[in-house]
Structure formats: C-alpha cells, structure tokens
C-alpha cells in the first residue's frame, strides 16, 4: 500500500545549516528560468521578488509572480513555481526552531502573498543575506534579530488598522483553530472536538469563525479536508481509495460523495482536469 509516489517534501538544501538558508535569486537562477513542480516544505519558505515574471500557485490558489511580490509559506503547504529568466530578489527558508517568535509566525503565516512596493522587505533580506554570506562572529544571532524585523515588516504590509481587544481575541482563537485543523484533520472531523481542544463551547467557536471568516467551524473543517484531498490528488499517484484512507475515511464511496458535494466533481475528474 505504500509503493505510490508520496508528496515530495523538500528540506533546507545540503551544505548549509539545517535550520536556515537564504539565496540570491539572480545567482541561483544563473540567467535561466526556474520551474519547481508541485511539492511541499518542512520549513517556512519566503520568496521575495525585486523584479520578476512568472506564476506561483500556493495550496491551489494562483498568483502572478511579479515585481515587488513577497510570498510566505508555512510548513506543509504545497506550491509550484515558475519564474522567468532575469528575476531578482531572495529565497529564504528557516525552521520554527530557528525563529522563536511563534505568535508573529502565526500572524504573518495567515497571509501567503504580500506586496512590497517600497522595498522594505527586500532591504531587510539584503541585510540578512549579507550577514549570511560574511558569517562574522555571532552571525546567527544577528540573523535571528533581523528575522524578527522581517516578520514585523511583513505584518505592517498587511495594512490592518489597530484592533480592539475583542478583535485580537477573535484573531488569536481563529489562528489556534487553523493550526489544529492542519495537525488533526486526518483523525478529528467534528466541530465539537476542536471546540473542546480550545476549551470553548461550540457556540463560542462558531461565533469566532463567523466573525472572522463568515463561516461555521464545520465549513472550515470541510474546507481543510478538501484541501488535503486536493494536495494528495495532484501531488501523488495514490488511488482515491488510499487517499480516503489517509484522510480517515473507511468508506471510499462516502468520501467520493463528500468530495463531489463540496467541489461539484468526483476526485478522479478533479485529478484528470488539473493534472
């Protein structure tokens, strides 16, 4: 049952510390285009374009990879990237262990795409790249401090107005729920289970999700199941029955009906149309 191709998982590239790396895109691409087929990472991934043209798809949401674009991916998200020759900027990766600012990572990671028209993100990344290249005494500590500035800079780009305590509470509970969904969706599919993990009543949790996203907890659960199913359908050759099993469904027919109800097509039709 395990002989099918699994979703490719990339690690921080060899020859560098296993918890951090940053590359200059123009050096990395060497005058050629870049094509990265569908895969996922086990680390946080940043792509910041000073100049660029291409396409970037993150969890099946398409983006135009143009100048001044910044992309921030959480571990586990799937993406594919096509960049044309001549693109400039930086590609950075780091583990959660290297960055100690968990709350900032959550807030920044809630958004995958940013626009850096003023170049503020690129300036911070240029400092990080220079420190990484020179590797003077305590360079890792300097990079970690700069990484903190980088995250704050991204947070400012969200251009969110100052929020009151009620809004802050709602956002924090939502972020905690989204983290739990990514971790437990294969085994936990009832809204009441997530409410219990967050020490809230189901009514309270539904109030949070409706206020933040206009959706119920059950709708978010269904959306996460479909996202995981799409990841498996497009990034692996696993049979639908195996994907259903991986997602915790003993009855493949029920899974197929559920997928069609949510998307309008069967898993096989989705795979055939999007492969």
Automatic annotation (TrEMBL):
Pfam families (alphabetical): AraC_binding, HTH_18
Print the organism lineage: Bacteria, Pseudomonadati, Bacteroidota, Chitinophagia, Chitinophagales
- Protein name per UniProt: AraC-type DNA-binding protein
Q: Tell me what organism the protein belongs to.
A: Chitinophaga eiseniae
Does the record carry Lipoprotein as a key word? no
Q: Which SUPFAM superfamilies match?
A: Homeodomain-like, Regulatory protein AraC
The record's keywords, sorted A to Z, are:
DNA-binding, Transcription, Transcription regulation
The HTH araC/xylS-type domain covers: 175-273
One molecular function GO term is: sequence-specific DNA binding
